[in-house]
Amino acid sequence: MPDAIKTAPATEDPKTAAAEPVAVKAEKARSLWGDAWIDLRSNWYFIISSVLIVILLVMTAFPGLFTGASPTKGDLVHHFLSKPELSKVGSPEWLGYDLQGRSVYARTIYGTRASVIVGISVTALVTVFGGLIGMLGGYFGGKVDALLSGFTNIFLGLPFLLGSMVVLQAFADRTVWVVILALAFLGWTQIARVMRGAVITIKQADYVQAARALGAGTSRILFRHILPNAMAPVIVVATISLGVYISAEATLSYLGLGLADPTISWGIDISGGLSQIRVAQHVLLYPSIMLSITVLAFIMLGEAVRNALDPKSR
Predict the structure, then answer these.
(1) Cα dihedral angle (22, 28, 29, 35), rounded to 10 degrees?
(2) With CB atoms 3.0 to 4.6 Å apart as the test, which of 75, 88, 109, 267 could cross-link to 250 if both were Cys?
(3) Is the CB of residue 104 less than 8 Å from the CB of residue 86?
(4) pLDDT grade, residue 31 (50/70/90)?
């Protein structure tokens, strides 16, 4: 009889199956930078400013892609203050000609190079130097902080634009790199103060104290634990300041204390077009518009990054 008895296959109770716990894959914890990138991708300020900045960088590296005209060759006989021909988009005469018969469109395109190089180079220099000063003062404190803070305050008391004018007066040949060094000489103080404040806050964190207790050296604590976490406010200030440095270069060139011919600069063209503003407004107008767009793009990028990195804004 037992052999005749067949065991029915076990059926799974749907209620029991539903009650069984389902394994859920743990999501990887996102960092501040990961959250910031998610926010930035949906921020129109970031998207628009990034597109504009990419175009400006391409203009800086490859101006020949945008115009085949020479920015330095003039023709006074045929092109003296010729009016713009707006129907001929991209042609040398599209935005008219200046006092020396040079294409305003070509000079506007090639003027991007000097302004962007000055802005990026000054920002890089002040971020490295000012960040190092602020990080050392904030971490060591005491006499080191007092000495570096006093050194920073001396430069902070000097007017940025006026001080740059005085420094540039000492050079007979004001090339792009001379202007970069003059602006960086006085422009690092804000970065230093921001970095110092961030380091003072972060060095009290538990993970820094734990690293110190485990015997980590000063350089490892500074560059492995403190610096990556202190860079967020510095990047925000540096991004916004980049537009300020571009504007400062144009201002100095406009006043005749910055770049000079044969270097092509928006500030030089704005200065040259001022004397002809009543009869040929286009000579002044288009470099001014390009300068405003460039400065605005970097300020918008800085604002977008600030909002993304600020936890209080979320």
Answers:
(1) -120
(2) 267
(3) no
(4) low
Dist CA 185 CA 168 (whole Å): 11
* 129 to 213, 241, 291, 313: CA distances (angstroms): 29, 15, 27, 30
CA geometry: angle at 309 spanning 306 and 312, to 5°?
95
Alpha carbon distance 128, 297 (integer Å): 23
Contact 271, 215 (CB under 8 A): no
User: Tell me, what's the pLDDT at 262?
Assistant: 85
Going by C-alpha positions, the residue among 124, 119, 125, 109 that lies closest to residue 56 is 109
Cα separation, 249 vs 242, whole angstroms: 11
**pLDDT (tens digit, 9 = 90+) per residue, 252-268?**
999 988 888 888 999 99
Query: Torsion angle, CA of 80/84/88/90, rounded to 10 degrees?
Result: 80
Identify the DSSP state of 50: H
CA distances from residue 123 to 126, 140, 183, 217, 310 in whole angstroms, order as listed? 5, 25, 9, 30, 21
Residue with tokens 């001014």: 288
C-beta separation of 261 from 268 below 8 A: yes
Rg (CA), the chain: 29
* Angle between the N-to-C axes of helices 176-187 and 189-202, in degrees from 0 to 180, rounded to the nearest 10: 50
